[in-house]
Amino acid sequence: MKAPAFDYVSVDSVSEAIAMRAAHGEDAIYLAGGHSVVPSLTLRLQAPSILIDISKIAELSGVELIDGWLRIGAMTRHVEVLKHPLIAKHAPLLAAAAPYVAHPAIRNRGTIGGSVALADPASEFPAMMLAIRAELEVVGPEGVRRIAADDFFQDIYETAMAPGEILRSILVPPLKEGTVFAFDELARRRGDYALVGAGLQLVVKEGVVKAADIALFSVGHTPTRARNAQAAVMGKQLDADAIAAAQSALSDDLDLSDEPQMPASIKLHLARVLLGRLLGKLGELT
Ligand SMILES: Cc1cc2nc3c(=O)[nH]c(=O)nc-3n(C[C@H](O)[C@H](O)[C@H](O)COP(=O)(O)OP(=O)(O)OC[C@H]3O[C@@H](n4cnc5c(N)ncnc54)[C@H](O)[C@@H]3O)c2cc1C
């Protein structure tokens, strides 16, 4: 299928983009890497009258350290997340997740901002925003605001951004001493969207878990923080008992329902297997 006809405009600044969006209302959508927008147009899932290309806005690019926080511009491509030395050092969980996002051709164009703004519950980066406790910096007609990742994802493809707001940056807090991390997903084929995936960032001191951030994806309507599993490992050594307790707690964390290709019970089983593997790996490291 071909996309319905639309106009296209490329803008140089966030303020220009916001003004253009305000002039056209909901008929306009922002275009970043285009790897979700373009398929949705050709499948005729949406039919905007105008695409506002934000990919050349300098303000949306760059990766830098500011007062100990890592700022990742929204237009940072998936491939840069995979390779950027500052991301490897200050947000290693994102670098670990990046190779699992689609295939190289898509990683060359797709952007982390596009992925987070789209809020697909099956995507890797939105869930990792929870695990790294990122804050999302958004700009709109009313100015700039920061939204904690835990408050950002509200439903399938729905975020706390108001219509017309632009995600400018992902802000990553400094890593604490003793931070360890692990990422993995189960997929039918490498590069497919995951059946279930998880990223963990823990602080472990003298073998004891002092902080735990565990996020899963492809397990419901939003990226999901596994609060009960986190509580199960807090203050514990990552031994078989603690891992089993975390796996067991997942049933209280996940609101699963039967899907055409997978009953909820199988998905819960896969999530438990994955969590057990990742906690086991971290247990061996610490
Ligand atoms: C075959 C295929 C396989 C894929 N597999 C995976 C996968 O395994 N895992 C995965 O996570 N993704 C996957 N993707 C999606 C891909 O990673 C997209 O590139 C990404 O989700 C969206 O980023 P984008 O820059 O292309 O955004 P776009 O497609 O340009 O935009 C996506 C949405 O976000 C909005 N938007 C974009 N940037 C901003 C911003 N800065 N502020 C506000 N709104 C914005 C747009 O208006 C649009 O609604 C796949 C895509 C394809 C085509």
Automatic annotation (TrEMBL):
Q: Where does the FAD-binding PCMH-type domain start and stop, copy by copy? A: 1-177
Molecular function GO labels:
FAD binding; oxidoreductase activity
Q: Which InterPro entries match?
A: CO_DH_flav_C, CO_DH_flav_C_dom_sf, Diverse_Substr_Oxidored, FAD-bd_PCMH, FAD-bd_PCMH-like_sf, FAD-bd_PCMH_sub1, FAD-bd_PCMH_sub2, Mopterin_DH_FAD-bd
**Keywords for this protein:** FAD, Flavoprotein, Oxidoreductase
Top-level taxon of origin: Bacteria
Identify one Pfam family in the record: CO_deh_flav_C
Please indicate if the UniProt record lists Thylakoid as a keyword.
no
The record's listing under PANTHER family reads: XANTHINE DEHYDROGENASE SUBUNIT C-RELATED
Protein's recorded name? FAD binding domain-containing protein
Taxonomic source organism? Sulfitobacter geojensis
Q: In the record, what lineage is assigned to the organism producing the protein?
A: Bacteria, Pseudomonadati, Pseudomonadota, Alphaproteobacteria, Rhodobacterales
